[in-house]
Specification:
Layout lengths: L21 E3 L2 E3 L2 H12 L34
Antiparallel strand pairs: 1-2
């Protein structure tokens, strides 16, 4: 049983598992190659920024988590 101490709105979300996900910085996808495409799209300015949060461009972080030439990160479970 869930009891709130004051008036509130909650949402419970459930369903079938979505499967494996790859996460890098702010990008999440079920395909590793889509993460690479998102990186290229971000660098080229092809991803629209939110209307009230578009005055500062945040560059991609340096990916120092693995040496160059190694395979992409493994999916999360």
């Amino acid at each position: 049983m869930l009891v709130a101490r004051e008036t509130c709105t909650i949402m419970l979300l459930g369903g079938e598992p979505l499967g494996e996900r790859f996460i890098w910085w702010n990008f999440v996808s079920s395909r590793a190659e889509r993460i690479e495409q998102a990186k290229a799209d971000w660098l080229a300015g092809r991803i629209a920024l939110p209307p009230n949060d578009n005055t500062e461009f945040v560059p991609l972080p340096n990916d120092k988590s693995r040496p160059a030439g190694t395979p992409p990160p493994q999916p999360l479970s």
